[in-house]
Design goal:
The chain has 485 residues and is α/β, with parallel strands linked by helices. It is 38% helix and 20% strand. It folds into three domains: 62 residues; 172 residues, 3-Layer(aba) Sandwich (Rossmann fold); 220 residues, Rossmann fold (3-Layer(aba) Sandwich), CATH 3.40.50. It contains 17 helices and 22 strands. The protein starts with a helix and ends with a helix. It binds cytidine-5'-triphosphate.
Amino acid sequence: MSETARELLGEIEAFLALFQVTPTKFGVDAVNDGHLVAKLRKGGSVTLKTADRVRAYMASERSEQPAAPRQAAASHRVLLIIGGGIAAYKCLDLIRRLRERGIAVRAVMTKAAQQFVTPLSVGALTSDRVFTELFDLDDEREIGHIRLSREADLIVVAPATADLLAKMAGGHADDLASCVLMATDKPVLIAPAMNPRMWLHPATRRNVTQLKADGIALVGPNIGEMAERGEAGPGRLAEVPELVEAIIGMLAPLVQKGGGNLPLVGRHVLVTSGPTHEPIDPVRYIANRSSGKQGSAIAAEAAALGARVTLVSGPTQIADPPGVEVVHIESAREMLEAVRRALPADIAIFAAAVADWRVATRSDEKIKKAAGQGAPRLELVENPDILKTIAAEKGGRRPKLVIGFAAETQNVIEFAKKKRRAKGADWIVANDVSPETGIMGGDRNAVHVISEDGVESWPDLDKGEVARRLMARAANYFAERTAPV
Ligand code: CTP
């Protein structure tokens, strides 16, 4: 990636984050649409003429629009150490998302990080100085690495490169980032991002094992395509909503210690999430497109409000939200069993896309093709309905608030109302999962919350925001109708 392209991308990311616009809405007059941003994010190049046009466009927009509102008083403080990787641009959005939630962010950037995003862009979003040098006399006199650590509740390293992991595991302290990490007594969360071969290298494996043993928390990396053409595997930086969840999950217990407004302290919240896999034989299964993102976001949000959270999750590609007890299961029957074991709960939220049917008799051996006999016939039987079963529990085992989801592709509200009655749920969160909505597997969701009071339709939101609103609503409902713990 050329210097111009890298710098331009940094400026564009800061602009998008500051004005809360998506790449596709970007630069109507300057460039066609978001293709330029997508291309730059993949490491593509840009002509000087286009770069000038885009810069001129951003400058004119900046002079016309006020920036997104900043959070007045921050209740928690994160020191974000930005490592040098192409994924560093995601930190810009991460900073904005954290600040929206009242979390103050101060940034340290490694030398390599500054090759990908500029301290100027980062500083514009943190509204603070960006710290880059260990031996900057001014910085050391005014605010050295010890104070950087002391003034934070949590240290987050994102993207954590192979080199940063090696330095941390080996106890090196030869630049500001590694010095802060050596000098800190605060919890540390790292979000690794690197080429899959580097992630799978024995040296990185050793370093990760060591860091875990040292009590360092990890989020990601995810499996997927790399910025380099044709590269795929484990090594993608966790997505911003996952990073936010992980950070909130780690901040919540710290806040609990210090008190604070946590309406779900002392409550148990149970969440199901993800798809289920129904085995056909040892290598094949029936599944669906659920990503588990919405359920995971709900679990993280419940933890952030102070609840003890059990997340029963089917197989997904996303990281476990920290601060949440996660029970991994595969099939619907295993999910029901895990849910039953987790009871009693105050609130139960059934966000999982449970397979309705399983194969009647699962084969213990791989089913072979037999010449001339055609395809095998699979007999399906119905799975237990977990939501319905739990909503019908008696003797105080029924959670006080039972929330189901309804995944529909037509007549969304009408079908969801019927589901609420048929399953005995207090609320149903209905969404349209037709492929064109991009909800199943995507990062956004548009839902209708159906309760005995009627239907409340929410706008298209990211799944983290849906989780936030849903849990705030649940906390309110709970506070109004139940006695304090
Ligand atoms: N659900 C469940 N157990 C099942 C099926 C569904 O707990 N075996 C829960 C889901 O987690 C969700 C709600 O029931 O909260 C509705 O799921 P959905 O897939 O929309 O509906 P189904 O009951 O499967 O009905 P249909 O597929 O006919 O729409």
